């Protein structure tokens, strides 16, 4: 095995040619989801912890910094490693709620 | 391309899935003991499940030329009940003698509670007493980072543990580095929606290199793909990677990890011996 380099074998233009369409649609899906929230019957989750995390994540995508995936992952993460005294619910919900 | 699926909950899959896996190059699966989607009513339900893992599933897999191995434990989602944990821990040692049992797993944490952590440590003790490999489940979503940190710190502080005999599974971009840094194996589980799929798994391999990294389908009773590994192989080729690298990740690496158990071996495909 050759010594490892973190570069991808594909050039930028190869990436764009092969993968633009599937990522174009992901941006449109997100835009449509945000529009849908505006049109909702009731605006009762404007400050929902999941939407707050999503807005923070979207800001990371356009801030010009690197390691975007890692930073978005941490935006959704609970950073407190203290074990809970007992089980509160069986499953995670996708974003960290500071007020749980 | 031939491959091993290190994390497949075949009790939840049909025989057609074994067939699809065989047709796409699967030579072996390892099946960690896990949550059924509901809490089991008592220790007898675990005994029934463990019996299936050591008797029925290897027979079903053998019909398609797939070697079936398994890992024993009480999973973290049911570890809140300490009394149940103790009773299940009592029955596990007899299963460790069985020919297809490679170790203890998938142990770990779910919501990261005190009782889950106590149950995790109990299982590590059992693995050490019986010189077993360990397969670790890390929590999902917002609990993943903290749960992985607690697991890795606990294992790294334990002088009895040889990190290369431990696989820490469900790694993602924000946890893979801490797992690899302490010398453990990192598993990437390929989900069709909600978590990591092939393209981000490939990013992780490009960035961290292929040493001590495996991929698996983690197929179970939820939406999942028993053929996630061949899909990963296809995507690796689309991303310009040579077959030598792909083979290392889907075939050589799992064999290197599992060969640390004397019970591990693959069917001899050169000899014409009847299957099953
Ligand atoms: Zn699993």
Question: What do these coordinates show?
Answer:
The complex is a heterodimer of chains A (100) and B (276). Chain A is mainly α. Chain A has two domains: 9-44; 45-79 and 94-100. Chain A is 48% helix and 0% strand. Chain A has helices at residues 12-38, 49-61, 68-75. The radius of gyration of chain A is 18 Å and the shape is flat. In chain A, 8% of the residues are buried. Chain B contains nine helices and eight strands. Chain B has helices at residues 15-23, 43-62, 82-95, 114-129, 144-156, 176-181, 198-208, 228-238, 243-258; strands at residues 3-5, 26-32, 67-72, 101-108, 133-137, 166-168, 185-189, 213-216. In chain B, helix 1 links the parallel strand 1 (3-5) and strand 2. The longest helix of chain B has 20 residues, at 43-62. Chain B is globular, with a radius of gyration of 17 Å. The model of chain B has no long low-confidence stretch (mean pLDDT 96). Chains A and B meet through helix 3 of A and helix 4, helix 5, helix 7 and helix 9 of B. The complex binds zinc ion (ZN).
């Amino acid at each position: 095995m050759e010594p490892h380099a973190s570069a991808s074998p594909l050039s930028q233009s190869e990436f764009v040619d092969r993968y633009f369409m599937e990522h174009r649609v992901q941006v449109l899906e997100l835009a449509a989801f945000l529009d849908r929230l505006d049109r909702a019957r009731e605006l009762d989750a404007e400050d929902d912890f999941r939407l707050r995390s999503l807005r923070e994540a979207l800001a990371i995508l356009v801030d010009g910094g690197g390691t975007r995936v890692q930073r978005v992952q941490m935006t959704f993460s609970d950073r407190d490693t203290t074990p809970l005294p007992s089980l509160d619910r069986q499953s995670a919900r996708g974003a960290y709620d500071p007020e749980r | 391309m031939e491959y091993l699926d290190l994390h497949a909950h075949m009790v939840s899959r049909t025989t057609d899935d074994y067939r699809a896996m065989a047709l796409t190059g699967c030579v072996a699966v390892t099946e960690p003991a896990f949550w059924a989607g509901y809490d089991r009513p008592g220790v007898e339900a675990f005994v029934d499940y463990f019996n299936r893992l050591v008797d029925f599933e290897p027979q079903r897999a053998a019909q398609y030329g797939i070697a079936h191995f398994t890992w024993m434990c009480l999973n973290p989602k049911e570890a809140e009940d300490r009394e149940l944990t103790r009773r299940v821990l009592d029955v596990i040692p007899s299963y460790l003698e069985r020919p297809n049992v490679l170790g203890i797993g998938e142990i770990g944490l779910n919501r990261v509670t005190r009782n889950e952590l106590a149950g995790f440590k109990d299982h590590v003790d059992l693995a050490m007493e019986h010189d077993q490999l360990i397969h670790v489940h890390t929590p999902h979503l917002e609990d993943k980072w903290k749960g992985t940190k607690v697991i890795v710190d606990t294992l790294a502080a334990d002088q009895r543990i040889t990190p290369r005999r431990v696989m820490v599974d469900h790694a993602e971009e924000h946890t893979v580095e801490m797992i690899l840094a302490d010398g453990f194996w990192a598993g990437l589980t390929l989900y069709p929606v909600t978590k990591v799929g092939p393209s981000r798994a490939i990013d992780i391999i490009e960035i961290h290199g292929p040493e001590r990294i495996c991929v698996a389908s983690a197929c179970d009773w939820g939406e999942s793909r028993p053929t996630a590994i061949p899909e990963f192989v296809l995507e690796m080729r689309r991303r310009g990677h040579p077959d030598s690298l792909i083979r290392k990740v889907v075939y050589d690496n799992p064999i290197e990890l599992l060969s640390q158990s004397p019970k591990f071996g693959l069917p001899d495909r050169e000899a014409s011996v009847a299957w099953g």
